[in-house]
Amino acid sequence: MPPSALPAGARKVHQQGSTFYVIGDERQFLRDAYHTFLHLPWSASLGLIAIAFFAFNLVFALVYLQVGGIAGADGSFTDALSFSVQTMATIGYGVMHPASNPANGAMIIESMFGIIFTALATGLVFSKFSRPTTRISYSKQIVITQHEGKRTLMLRIGNRRSNVIVEAQLHVVAVLTTVTAEGSMFYRASDLKLVRDRQVGMTRGWTVMHVIDEASPLFGLDEAGLATAEIEIYIALTGIDSITMQSVHSIHQYDDSHIKIGYRFEDTLVPLPDGTFLVDLRNFDTILPETTPRTTGSPSRA
Fold first, then answer.
1. Which of 40, 192, 269, 287 is a good FRET partner for 10, with 20 to 30 A between their CA atoms?
2. Domains (range + CATH), the chain
């Protein structure tokens, strides 16, 4: 259905790489404002605070122009705005000051409003700054290849920080489009059993593997079958940051266009003649046909 044919009030939503339209949800902007602020990027959050500060000062500048009574001001909007900024920011240069009861009343109201606004802005910035985050990289593609004589789905994740994610836990879900016995379209979500779904401490890399056997929802699907099923794979990583000692999480999504059958990942851990190893992260996203010879003795960490 094209967007122009959708019912009135349909809202476009982007989430985890997918786009869909929602009708009939109850929007409560003020209740969700805190969550929305934390979700915004830093540039948008700080820009929003700056715009709000400027807008509030514009309002009070108009009030001062209306009531007058500002000693040291020439009656211009520029002076009114400057006095408003000095009041709300508690700068107090002393060049301009209220000299009438209406001006004093407006100054008192703005001062109280400024204290509340500053407290809210400080709390929001601190909450956003102190929120635990991760820098987890996911391979651009998923491969399906032979491993230990079994057809195996593989993807890579990596920790781009020098910390350790303690008790790192993975949860991988495949969502496929199916048709029920009644003929209705149904999105079936199935947990993918992993060769290893937990690490005591995740430092750098992790090769995530799922054996595609008879019990796997991917069993018997080729590239055309994956596309027909409109498969989406979701990966959730949770653990405890060893530095902040706070719980952290990360989530990523793939669709059928990201799954390559008959390929494998290029080795990132290369043995050197002196017995040491070279970690070549340039190969993190590189995939090769599975018939390509491997580097002798290159281990792969699962």
1. 40
2. 29-130 (1.10.287.70), 136-289 (2.60.40.1400)
**φ/ψ (deg, to 5) at 10:** -70, 135
Alpha carbons 207 and 53: distance in angstroms, whole number: 48
Q: Are 146 and 290 in contact (CB under 8 A)?
A: yes
255 CB-contact burial (10 Å; exposed 0-12 / middle 13-18 / buried 19+):
middle
**E strand or H helix at 29, and its extent?**
helix 29-39
Residue 50 CA to its chain's centroid (Å): 23
The 10 Å Cβ neighbour count of residue 101 is 10
Strands 142-147 and 259-261: parallel
Q: Tell me the per-residue pLDDT of 183-197, one tens digit each, with 9 for 90 and over.
A: 888 889 999 999 999
Dump strand ranges (E) for 148-204.
Answer: 150-159, 165-179, 185-191, 198-202
For residues 47 and 59, give the distance between their C-alpha atoms in angstroms, rounded to a whole number. Answer: 18
pTM score, two decimals? Answer: 0.70
